[in-house]
């Protein structure tokens, strides 16, 4: 038994070893691994066949083009690796993924393990319900079943809210966003609490978009950022500078518009979520503050 | 690697504050509370599933060996149906498809999961029970009937007591499998150990959550193995089949 534990511990320790110099790694290998999500709304999603697109994916592609220029590489091979809520932090930590372009909340817990570029998108956690349910605020969820997705910060948020306001609801956790939305769609849950853009995206893609509504107060505001390895200031600077450039030139706003208010593939539906004041504020004053600092306001 | 923080388990999952007691402090839910709750779900699904599997599996296994061809065919079809479809697919069928086709069967998710895991495993148990019965010499069946026993009595008093003793080892292994297979319950929103580990590791240290969860799965399956060993020892008959 002791030996088995030792082997496990050794494995964990090895996984913690990472190359800290990402720029050198990119230069030496001529390739870079981008972590992407299969379905994180318009931020990062797959079109199938190994193709990944979205607002964050496109920002990362611009960033990597700048990195390529900075390094003077003739060719940069971008490898796309789909990651999940559960494995994205360890994969960045152990060097498998060089830059994660999904929908990761910048928080203090994660900052112990990884670093974040400047916030590119500020998420608002909202409630989606069936349009005919008559629910318009979280207070009405008393006695109802509320779905959210395992492995997300929304779970903790929901529990906090439940405890603080004395609202008593049953919580059910879907294994991914599609699953949680199915819980709402099939009536197993009365509401789905999640990031606004994920709700909007799922509703837009559903068979009957008019049947669902995003209602109620904003439960929390979360800075979403591109994730990179910790203790690599040179790479962080390269990424940050590139993103700040996009923000300054207004390019970031254009990209946002492209993915969030225009029809997007594969079904050419609109997410229909104009940039919020909080997101615009993050573009005007680029920062990499964690969610905890947003909560203080 | 981060140092091992024992206080993590006494920390409230919601506020990230240390609770006055690690376990069962009112108004708090520590990581330990949540882990034990998840483990409870895992064990509930496993044990209830095992009961369904043992009852259905034994019945179908017996049916497959009776002289009546129609009953035997029914048993064969049952076994082939449930063992040729992946467990996760069966789970989704029970959870999403059947309640829509038959609204009467809109049972709570936990019941549907127990049915799915139980019936999936029943086909495997049926196969073993059948093998156990067929292993017995044909003469035993004839002897039973020559004594004037009816067919059910022959099974009850002659065939099954021996057959079940023979199949205890594979049944043990099946019972352990059910604990491991129960992790699919997470896919239909049962807050079991698998779900706990994914949620908690998101909020906190990966290693510190997954290591105890792995050990809990191991301990649970191994406990079933030990119980089965005791049963095996208790029911053995001196002079036959591996009994010393």
Please render the helix and strand layout as text.
The complex is a heterodimer of chains A (297) and B (244).
Chain A: H1 2-15, H2 22-29, E1 31-36, E2 39-40, E3 44-48, E4 51-53, H3 55-71, E5 77-82, H4 88-93, E6 99-105, H5 108-111, E7 114-116, E8 121-130, E9 145-149, H6 153-165, E10 170-174, H7 177-185, E11 191-195, H8 196-205, E12 212-229, H9 233-248, H10 251-260, E13 263-264, E14 269-270, H11 277-284, H12 291-296
Parallel strand pairs in A: 1-5, 1-6, 9-10, 9-11
Antiparallel strand pairs in A: 2-3, 3-4, 6-12, 7-12, 8-11, 8-12, 13-14
Helix pairs in contact in A: 3-9
Chain B: H1 31-63, H2 69-83, H3 87-101, H4 109-135, H5 138-146, H6 151-181, H7 193-203, H8 206-235
How would you characterize this protein structure?
The complex is a heterodimer of chains A (297) and B (244). About 2% of the residues of chain A have low confidence. In chain A, the strands form 3 sheets. In chain A, strands 1, 5, 6, 7, 8, 9, 10, 11 and 12 form a 9-stranded mixed beta sheet that branches. In chain A, strands 2-3-4 form a 3-stranded antiparallel beta sheet. Chain A has 297 residues and is an alpha/beta fold. Helices cover 41% and strands 27% of the residues of chain A. In chain A, α3 crosses α9. With 244 residues, chain B is mainly alpha-helical. Helices cover 70% and strands 0% of the residues of chain B. Chain B contains 8 helices and no strands. In chain B, α4 packs across α6. Chain B starts with 30 loop residues before the first helix and ends in a 9-residue tail after the last helix. The mean pLDDT of chain B is 91.
